[in-house]
């Protein structure tokens, strides 16, 4: 009987336990979510493996061209890349005319993806890349009697590929496609791999640069009435042919060298936008993730940042023009390199100090971190860290070369100081921007409006004398003014620093983009490492450095707006 009582007593506790996994609806929903998640991971894995194999195949071709120019020629690499471009063109056209027009194909759009400065960069760099291909076609057409037909066909396909890809990214970079997930992921990854291979070829292929530079130097020596040097004779012997018309050829050659960095920038920007699109395939965005009001760019409350930044831009423009005039001559002046490095040595510490102060203010604010899933912001952080490696890597190579030769010489010591300061500035700015991108901020005035409403409710509920009411108002006003000034002081300093860094990064983006490359033209590191090795190092680090400055402008503008 005691056993029966114990069983009856324990029965309610057993039946009161609810096992949710036995319900069909729970099992069905969880299995659907799990299958969807597994399918998404499988699709990302398969498309990633496709891109990896394409990149390895293209890298093997390019490496074979560098180390064994007899078996694998530049024309073979161009044929492979032309095939990849044509495949990408077919997929982009299919996406534009087929996938994106299906019912319920684009139900969501990522508002964080495809900022206007990113899409503007795609158009700017794409236009310059088209001009680059036009100059290459013109140069090859003039020398068609001794050039391969592939040298005309490859840039022609490149123009069509650049135009189609730029249109595709401008109109569809925010899409969160909901149909044909795997095919879209594979198409995006194939396009990313093609852009990466184009960037790798641009970094490593110095054939046309050597040919053009040798001919330009020979022409300048002829105009100067000097006898050609042994190096010029050697370059002319190795060059395939010489321009019949000096003026037209010189225009094409100068244009090609000037616009060459834009092509690498275009490939890097397109890769970043395409990667965000790849992450957004199949993504469903809930309504509370969509911002109802976007913060607007305003110049209110900033004075010193624009003044200092404008001064840096004006001085930098003057230094840049002086450098371009003197450094492009036959014998570059030593003074112009001293002025160029001195400008950087003054500006970089100011930028570093501003970034450090901004990081300290971020720590003092004690704001909550924004932990919502945001592929665009995650990519911004990765790109800032990755692109900074370009300038940091070049700086370390330069430091080793300068210390090993003669660091006490004036120009070497200036270049050494420039390299060290550049490393420190990149690190401090990255910390400031990444910390600012992850801060969750309340809009200006929201906290103050809430306090005013609370004060009004409190005063309406109380019934006090006129004297007590006046004392309460005075205390509340003093505390409100103190709090507001304390908040606005921090935010105002953040806005000043952000705006100053925006203008500084703009001028530091303009100078190397439009031809100021003292790290290659002063000849110190080039003579230490050799022409071909230093060409690869510079063409690897310089586009990343330019991309870093451009990407920093976007991140700093976001920090400025949300401050």
TrEMBL record:
Under the heading Pfam families, the entry gives: Otopetrin (PF03189)
Q: Which InterPro entries match?
A: Otopetrin
Its keywords, alphabetically, are:
Cell membrane, Hydrogen ion transport, Ion channel, Ion transport, Membrane, Transmembrane, Transmembrane helix, Transport
What membrane topology term does the record carry? Multi-pass membrane protein
Annotated transmembrane regions: 45-66, 78-97, 117-140, 152-170, 182-202, 257-278, 299-325, 337-361, 381-404, 416-437, 497-516, 528-548
Cellular component GO terms, alphabetical = plasma membrane
Q: Where in the cell is it found?
A: Cell membrane
Task: Please give one Gene Ontology molecular function term for this protein.
Answer: proton channel activity
**Would you identify the family this protein belongs to, as annotated?**
Belongs to the otopetrin family.
List the PANTHER family hit by this protein, alphabetically.
Answer: PROTON CHANNEL OTOP, PROTON CHANNEL OTOP3
Q: What is this protein called?
A: OTOP3 protein
From which organism does this entry originate?
Thryothorus ludovicianus (Carolina wren)
């Amino acid at each position: 009987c005691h056993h029966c009582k114990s069983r009856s007593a324990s029965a309610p506790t057993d039946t009161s336990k609810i096992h949710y996994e036995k319900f069909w609806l729970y099992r069905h929903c969880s299995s659907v979510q799990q299958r969807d998640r597994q399918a998404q991971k499988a699709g990302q894995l398969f498309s990633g493996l496709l891109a990896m194999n394409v990149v390895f195949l293209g890298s093997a071709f390019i490496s074979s061209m560098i180390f064994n120019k007899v078996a694998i020629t530049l024309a073979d690499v161009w044929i492979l890349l032309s095939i990849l471009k044509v495949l990408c063109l077919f997929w982009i056209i299919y996406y534009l005319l087929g996938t994106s027009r299906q019912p319920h194909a684009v139900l969501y759009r990522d508002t964080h993806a495809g900022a206007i400065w990113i899409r503007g960069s795609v158009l700017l760099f794409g236009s310059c890349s088209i001009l680059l291909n036009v100059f290459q076609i013109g140069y090859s057409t003039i020398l068609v009697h001794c050039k391969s037909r592939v040298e005309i066909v490859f840039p022609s396909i490149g123009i069509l590929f650049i135009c189609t890809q730029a249109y595709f990214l401008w109109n569809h970079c925010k899409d969160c496609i909901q149909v044909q997930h795997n095919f879209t992921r594979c198409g995006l990854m194939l396009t990313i791999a093609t852009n990466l291979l184009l960037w790798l070829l641009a970094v490593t292929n110095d054939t046309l640069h050597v040919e053009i530079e040798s001919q330009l130097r020979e022409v300048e020596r002829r105009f100067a009435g000097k006898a050609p040097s042994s190096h010029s004779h050697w370059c002319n012997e190795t060059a395939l042919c010489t321009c019949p018309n000096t003026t037209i050829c010189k225009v094409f050659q100068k244009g090609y060298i000037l616009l060459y960095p834009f092509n690498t920038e275009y490939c890097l920007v397109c890769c970043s936008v395409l990667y965000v699109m790849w992450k957004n395939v199949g993504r469903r965005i809930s309504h509370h993730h969509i911002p109802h009001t976007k913060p607007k760019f305003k110049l209110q409350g900033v004075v010193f940042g624009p003044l200092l930044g404008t001064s840096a831009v004006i001085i930098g423009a003057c230094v840049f023009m002086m450098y371009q005039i003197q450094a492009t001559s036959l014998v570059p002046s030593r003074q112009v390199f001293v002025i160029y490095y001195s400008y950087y040595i003054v500006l970089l510490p100011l930028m570093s100090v501003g970034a450090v102060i901004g990081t300290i203010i971020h720590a003092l604010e004690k704001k909550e971190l924004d932990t919502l899933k945001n592929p665009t912001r995650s990519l911004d952080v990765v790109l800032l860290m990755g692109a900074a490696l370009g300038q940091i890597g070049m700086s370390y190579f330069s430091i080793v070369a300068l210390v090993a030769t003669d660091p006490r010489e004036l120009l070497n010591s200036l270049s050494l100081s420039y390299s060290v300061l550049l490393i420190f500035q990149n690190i401090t700015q990255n910390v400031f921007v990444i910390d600012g991108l992850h801060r969750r901020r309340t809009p200006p005035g929201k906290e103050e409006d809430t306090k005013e409403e609370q004060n009004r409710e409190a005063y309406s509920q109380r019934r006090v004398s006129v004297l007590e009411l006046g004392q309460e108002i005075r205390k509340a006003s003093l505390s409100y003014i103190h709090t507001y000034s304390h908040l606005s002081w921090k935010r105002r300093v953040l806005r000043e620093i952000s705006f100053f860094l925006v203008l500084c990064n703009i001028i530091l983006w303009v100078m190397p983009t439009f031809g100021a490359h003292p790290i290659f033209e002063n000849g110190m590191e080039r003579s230490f490492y050799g022409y071909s090795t230093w060409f690869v190092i510079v063409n690897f680090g310089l586009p990343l450095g330019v991309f870093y400055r451009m990407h920093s402008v976007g991140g700093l503008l976001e920090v400025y707006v949300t401050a």
